[in-house]
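Sample entry (171 residues):
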Amino acid sequence: MILRKLDKKPEEAREGELGLSECLLDRTGFLLKKAALRIQEAYEGRLDPLGMAAKHYGVLSVLEEKGSITQHEIGRCIYVDRTTMVGILDDLEKKGLVERKEHPTDRRSHAVYLTSKGKEAVGKAHHLASTVEKRFLECLSAREQKELRQILRKLVVSHYSSTKASERGEG
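Predicted structure, serialized as C-alpha cells:
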C-alpha cells in the first residue's frame, strides 16, 4: 500500500482521497463545471468586501474597456439577457458604481457610465481577480496556464460565434 502511494503522482493520490468518480473525471463538462464553480466561489469571496459579485465585476470591466454603452450592448458583451442585465445594473446603480443617462443619439436607450466610485472599485477588483486567478492556477505551470487560456478562449469564441450565427439563421 505504501509503495503504491509513492508510485502515484500527487494529483492521482489526491483524486483517490477525494473519492471522485473516475467516470466523471473523464467528462469534460463535469471538469469545466466544477472548476468554474470553484473559481467563482473564490471570486465572490474576494470581491465581497467591495460589495461586489463576479457578475458586477464583469459589467464594470466592460464599461471600463468600452466606455459608456447601452445596457443592451453590455449584455451582448457578456452574454447576459436583458432582464438579468437590468437587475445587475440596478444593483450597481444603488451602490453608486454606475449611472444611467439618456443616450446621446438614441432616445429609446440609456447609456451606462462608470462613476468615479465605479472606476476606483473596478481597479481594486482587477487586483483581487488577478490574485484569485494566480492562486487558483498555481497548480499549473506558466506554460499550462497559457495553454489553458488559449484552449478555453477557443472554445468560448467557437461556441458563442456559432450561437450568434444560428440566431441570425446562418447555422
